[in-house]
């Protein structure tokens, strides 16, 4: 666990995060050069705006808060303990101190009853998992690994921080590269060839780099060149040279760079056996459309398509915590008998209908926007606690500071929507003695990675960032996520919130909003199926406000 100075706070702005980590800790970071709300422009789904999600001003009127019914949540040692009540994920339940966090306890670890050895993985890979500190698979890994090993195309949906990356990496490494299963004659015949065996696509370069690090961790130092990153922002000719020289079996990259190098004839993926689309709902958004089209057409041969000579069909693996029905539709058309894999359930995609039994995919009406809304259900770790706090615009940063103190949060990610305001927030926090840093697309590559390193090392307590960090960042120690600006919709809320409470750890999400925005929080609460009670921070404590 990182030792974080108690006075430091770090806010992240949708940028790139480095991935050095503890044994079981990875970090996802976004490294685009500007703030982008990708899903807002997906023509398949319609624009994702508050109105498209059905937010109505009438909602505003329905929620009256009774300020006189305040219940104290935080119990600093010097505070009187009477009247103090904790808030469980389903409402007020237990007596405990929310604000006195010394370490990140694991509350509902998503670990499966199975062991890695039961999943049909090769012995060498099992050894490497052990060396890397992965001892028990998570539920989604237990469900996904055997399914992919059987040759199915899959859509993997499981909540943020539940281990989806290894869920697809393990079957790939079982069949590709030096750790793969031995052949009938007992030899593990890995030989370098010109063709790529697996292509993993991620929507940001930091996420791509993080996946590379996860693969390298398992490959070990001698074989780490079996994987190569092809991400934007880095020198393209060097990447092409490395492809030629190292002949990697696995490439991981961003859509633009993969498509570019492929179009230049420098990436040979015709006989590729695995195509992974990580954060698939974002990859299928309008912004990536052309590049993704090229990738889907040129990477391997999709199952069900006309056979090209003796080339075996690729397995297409689509992954996200949020899977709208548009992804299910796409997956059906690209795969042959594709399956939906969730933590404890595997079912044919054909059985998933807009009015079907899968919660995450079940829309309340037939529109694509409502289907997207429904996709946010089941995307949140169950141990997370959610609150909202009303504050005037000019007091938001101060409220954030009081929130951090009240919860004694050590590793904080604060989300905002605009770079200028984000910078101002960092300035204000620093001026009040809280170590904060900004992370956003206007920063150079070096500045971004330095900031991230500092955040990981505990030199920065609050990372202020924007939407681009919402999906990628994996910091096990992150104990608090704060929305200083409202997310665009429930899907964005879910991904932001998912930066804390990773792998069953405790985490708190606080949305600081203005009074006229409370109806949006109420709507999010309904769409996500979670309580987001009102709270305030007084006398160094988080106080939950009971509603009428
Ligand atoms: N079996 C395991 N044992 C211990 N740690 C694990 C295991 N599987 C994954 N992890 C760790 O858990 C963390 C979260 O995993 P990962 O990033 O794959 O989650 P995710 O489901 O992809 O999250 P998100 O939806 O936010 O992208 C990572 O630090 C990863 O290294």
From TrEMBL:
All copies of domain Helicase ATP-binding, residue ranges: 145-341
SUPFAM superfamilies: P-loop containing nucleoside triphosphate hydrolases
Motif Q motif positions after renumbering to this chain: 114-142
Keyword Nucleotide-binding on entry: yes
Residues of the Helicase C-terminal domain: 399-543
Statement: the UniProt record of this protein carries the keyword Ribosomal protein: no
EC number of the protein: 3.6.4.13
Protein name per the record: RNA helicase
Domain DEAD-box RNA helicase Q: 114-142
Database matches in PROSITE patterns: HELICASE_ATP_BIND_1, HELICASE_CTER, Q_MOTIF
UniProt keyword terms in alphabetical order: ATP-binding, Helicase, Hydrolase, Nucleotide-binding
Enzyme class: hydrolase
Catalytically driven reaction(s): ATP + H2O = ADP + phosphate + H(+)
Organism domain of life: Eukaryota
Organism: Gossypium davidsonii (Davidson's cotton)
A single GO molecular function term of this UniProt record: hydrolase activity
């Amino acid at each position: 666990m990182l030792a974080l100075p108690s006075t430091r706070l770090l806010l992240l702005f949708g940028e790139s995060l480095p991935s050095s980590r503890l044994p079981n800790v990875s970090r996802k970071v976004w490294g685009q050069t500007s703030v982008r709300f990708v899903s807002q422009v997906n023509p398949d789904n319609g624009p994702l705006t508050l109105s498209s999600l059905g937010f109505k001003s009438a909602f505003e009127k329905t929620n009256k808060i009774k300020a006189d019914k305040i219940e104290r949540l935080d119990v600093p040692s010097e505070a009187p303990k009477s009247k103090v009540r904790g808030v469980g994920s389903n409402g007020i339940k237990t007596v405990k101190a929310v604000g006195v966090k010394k370490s990140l306890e694991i509350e509902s670890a998503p670990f499966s009853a199975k062991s890695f050895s039961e999943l049909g993985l090769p012995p060498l890979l099992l050894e490497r998992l052990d060396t890397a500190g992965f001892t028990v698979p998570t539920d989604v890994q237990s469900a996904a690994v055997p399914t992919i090993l059987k040759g199915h195309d899959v859509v993997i949906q499981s909540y943020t921080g539940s281990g989806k990356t290894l869920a697809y990496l393990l079957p790939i490494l079982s069949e590709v590269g030096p750790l793969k299963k031995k052949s009938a004659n007992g030899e593990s015949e890995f030989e370098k060839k010109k063709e790529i065996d697996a292509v993993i696509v991620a929507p940001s370069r930091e996420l791509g780099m993080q996946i590379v690090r996860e693969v390298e961790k398992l490959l070990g130092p001698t074989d780490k060149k079996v994987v190569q990153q092809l991400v934007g922002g880095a020198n393209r000719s060097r990447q092409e040279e490395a492809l030629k020289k190292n002949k990697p079996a696995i490439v991981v990259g961003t859509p633009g760079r993969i498509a570019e190098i492929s179009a230049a004839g420098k990436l040979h993926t015709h006989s590729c056996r695995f195509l992974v689309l990580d954060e698939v709902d974002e990859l299928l958004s309008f912004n990536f459309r052309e590049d993704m089209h090229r990738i889907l057409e040129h990477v391997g041969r999709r199952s069900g398509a006309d056979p090209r000579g003796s080339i075996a069909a690729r397995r297409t693996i689509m992954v996200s915590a949020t899977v709208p029905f548009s992804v299910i539709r796409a997956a059906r058309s690209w795969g042959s008998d594709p399956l939906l894999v969730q933590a404890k359930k595997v079912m044919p995609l054909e059985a998933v209908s807009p009015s079907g039994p899968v919660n995450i995919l079940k829309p309340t009406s037939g529109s694509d926007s409502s289907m997207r809304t429904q996709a946010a259900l089941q995307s949140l770790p169950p141990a997370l606690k959610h609150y909202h706090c009303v504050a005037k615009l000019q007091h938001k940063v101060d409220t954030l500071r009081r929130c951090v103190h009240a919860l004694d949060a050590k590793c904080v990610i604060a989300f905002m929507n605009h770079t200028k305001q984000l910078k101002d927030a960092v300035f204000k926090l620093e001026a009040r003695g809280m170590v904060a840093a900004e992370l956003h697309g206007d920063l150079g590559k070096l500045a971004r990675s330095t900031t991230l390193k500092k955040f990981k090392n505990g030199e920065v307590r609050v990372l202020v960032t924007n939407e681009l960090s919402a999906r990628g960042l994996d910091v096990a120690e992150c104990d608090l996520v704060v929305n200083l600006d409202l997310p665009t919709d429930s899907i964005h809320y879910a991904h932001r919130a998912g930066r804390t409470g990773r792998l069953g750890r405790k985490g708190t999400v606080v949305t600081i909003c203005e009074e006229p925005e409370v109806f949006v929080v109420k709507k999010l609460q309904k769409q996500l199926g979670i309580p987001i009670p009102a709270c305030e921070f007084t006398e160094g404590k988080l106080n939950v406000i009971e509603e009428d």
